[in-house]
Description:
Layout (H helix, E strand, L loop, with lengths): L1 E2 L4 H5 L5 E2 L2 E2 L2 H8 L2 E6 L8 E9 L5 E8 L8 E7 L9 E4 L11 E7 L6 E7 L7 E7 L10 E2 L13 E2 L5 E7 L5 E7 L7 E3 L10 E8 L5 E7 L6 E7 L10 E6 L6 E4 L5 E5 L16 E7 L5 E9 L7 E8 L5 E7 L3 E7 L7 E2 L16 E2 L1
Antiparallel strand pairs: 1-29, 2-3, 4-27, 5-6, 6-7, 7-8, 9-10, 10-11, 11-12, 13-14, 14-15, 15-16, 17-18, 18-19, 19-20, 21-22, 22-23, 23-24, 24-28, 25-26, 26-27
Amino acid sequence: MIKILLSLGLAAAGLCFKNDSSTHSTQDVSDRRAGIVLEEFLYTSAPFPSCHAVTMVELENKELLATYFGGTYERHPDVEIRLQRKKTDGTWTAPVSVADGIQPDGKRLPTWNPVIFQPRGGELMLYYKVGPSPSEWWGAFKTSSDNGYTWSKAQRLAGKVLGPIKNKPIQLSDGTILSGSSTENGGWCAHIERSTDGGKSWTFIGPLNDPKKTGVIQPTLLTYADGSIQMLCRTRNNEEGHIVECWSKDKGLTWSEMKNTPLPNNNSGLDAVTLKDGRQVLVYNHSTRNQKGMGHKGRGVINIAVSKDGKEWEAALVLDYIDEPNKQYSYPSIIQTSDGLVHVIYTWHRERIKHVVLDPNKLVTYPIKGGQWPIDKLPFIKSTEK
């Protein structure tokens, strides 16, 4: 069971809490949780002890599907791709295995980083990686024509194509699909996989960075009314790292040079989504890799930021914060569903998957200046977890 301090109920009761050296008003408490509609776990117990790297999709029937990898631990050969369904009555089905790394000769390899995606008018697509490590893995995919109840046989992606490496692809108004991908062999390099035929074939564009200068992986993509596309990436820079960005003005064919954003990067996964109203919502760990009091590798805090132009960002929420060294909130995924709500899903201490639903029209935001979280407005107040 998890008990999060500063829940809406506590705020309504007029309670205040202390964050190290300052006391915050009821209004600050309310703002910190403003916009949160629901917090839940996908499961409380499972036949596997460890899980990670979750993504989500909304189906036409309004159900949600979530996929992640689960097994003994990351890299173990028994790690398989798991799937859960959130039915329209609000309940999650139990995890089921939908892909594994068993080879034709019987050898078993771990699976990694599933991404579930459905192009307009197309079949549901499940991309994932198979191999002993990220430097040696290859891309595979399955398709489903019945909303994920049954899946085709696994197919290996051809050539250099790996599929979306962590985050969902985007589909442009003309049907073009852009998939943010990356490699980790010989340096961290981001690239784009581009399809104009609904995902049947792909063009490899990149690499988009010099790994000797800035190693980047796991892109997420945002779109703008003027047709420009922004890519945000995780970087290999450590203590003083930042999220990095580049831009395209020709539907992903060419990209600008990678540059730092003002937002800190702790060498962990992030994701973002373009809302129907044009705003951008980013979910990430607002910390540096070795920042004290923020859990394992700076992943002890997970945050929501909002922007209108992708350049100036405002702090909206601290979803979770803990200062225990072996704890983490990581590898988030974010989508907006047809009802306008925003769904965030992420790894909770490698033990469970947490799901948070937001109403983007009720978020209360404060400017992030110089990369500094506005701690006086939205403090990192500890959660008590059991």
